[in-house]
């Protein structure tokens, strides 16, 4: 079993419910077990500012799925919750599920980059991740707690 951290985000169609539904869907993944999840946080959008604020969180699962099989399963959950994939980067969405870390693996394929390329730069990922894995050390040897000392909150707000 690998320990995997998954970033969750949404800003359309009742984002809090979208994330709760996504967590329920993670509980049903084959060969996997939802271990825990962070609180949900409100955050400003990364890209265009003419969109609603986001709700974000992080979940931890244990899984026997391969990284690609997990990616397929997460994209299926996104589609089932109304995600429409567009070319627009950082645009509004009903649900975004990102594999942040897959054990201690470093993965670089056309479909998947792990650790997630923005993990260390995004307060809406780092702080919820720190909440559920305060002793986490990234594959590059950096401590997540040290990253937090350099990353401002940028109006990140716990909502529950």
List keywords for this structure.
two-stranded antiparallel sheet; single chain; 4 helices; six-stranded antiparallel sheet
What does this structure look like?
This protein has 160 residues and is α+β, with helices and mostly antiparallel strands. The chain has one domain (2-158): 2-Layer Sandwich (Alpha-Beta Plaits), CATH 3.30.70.560. 27% of the residues lie in helices and 26% in strands. The protein contains four helices and eight strands. It has helices spanning 15-26, 67-80, 123-132, 144-150; strands spanning 2-10, 32-37, 41-43, 54-63, 96-102, 107-108, 113-114, 157-158. The strands form two sheets. Strands 1, 2, 3, 4, 5 and 8 form a six-stranded antiparallel beta sheet that branches. Strands 6-7 form a two-stranded antiparallel ribbon. α3 runs antiparallel to α4. It is globular. The mean pLDDT is 92.
Q: Can you tell me the overall shape?
A: globular
CATH architecture grouping: 2-Layer Sandwich
Radius of gyration: 15 Å
What portion of residues belong to β-strands? 25-35%
CATH-level-4 superfamily name: 7,8-Dihydro-6-hydroxymethylpterin-pyrophosphokinase HPPK
Overall strand count: 8
**What is the CA-CA span between the terminal residues?**
30 Å
Task: Note the total helix count.
Answer: 4
Order of helices and strands: EHEEEHEEEHHE
CATH topology: Alpha-Beta Plaits
Low-confidence stretches: none
Summarize the model shown.
This protein is α+β, with helices and mostly antiparallel strands and 160 residues long.
